[in-house]
Amino acid sequence: MQRTRNKRASHHQSPVRAADAGRYVASPLQWLLNSDSCLNGILISLIIPIMSEEITQNMPDGHSFEERVFARFDAIDARLQMLESQAEQRALETKPIWERALAEIVEVKERLNTLEQLSNRMIRKIDVLSKDMLDLRVDQTGIEDRLDKLESKPVQ
User: Fold this and answer.
1) Threshold 0.70, pTM exceeds
2) Of 10, 36, 69, 93, which is least surrounded by CB within 10 A?
3) Element (H, E) at 127
4) What pLDDT digit, counting tens, does each position of 47-80 carry?
5) 43: which DSSP letter?
6) How far from chain centre, in Å, is Cα 116?
7) From CA 63, how far away is CA 86, in angstroms rounded?
């Protein structure tokens, strides 16, 4: 195949010249490597090494690449299914534990509410008691003042 010499060729033009129209272009990559194309001033052929036309050899086990890839996918799928079943099993095993824990949390919350109600009642009682004590102290102070006045008067 001959190289295309027109560096200003638009990307809409075919990579094959009119004179080469009957010739087969192996691949766009091959055409790109054989052309004088540049990427940021560097020849593409320096960036992408030229590959040989040899067919990739199969692995010694005789299985094709696709068979090996699908076998790996099957193995990954099997592992994923095993992990999912283990996760479901653990969820079933821990469910009673969580149910007990939630029941205990509800019980503690109910007891806390009861204690809070008792605490509020005790606070009201202490408030009433302190007001009563204050009233008694006021009355006592009044009585002491009257007693002082009586004691300070001369006896007639």
Assistant:
1) no
2) 10
3) helix 65-152
4) 666 666 666 665 667 778 888 899 999 999 999 9
5) E
6) 38
7) 32
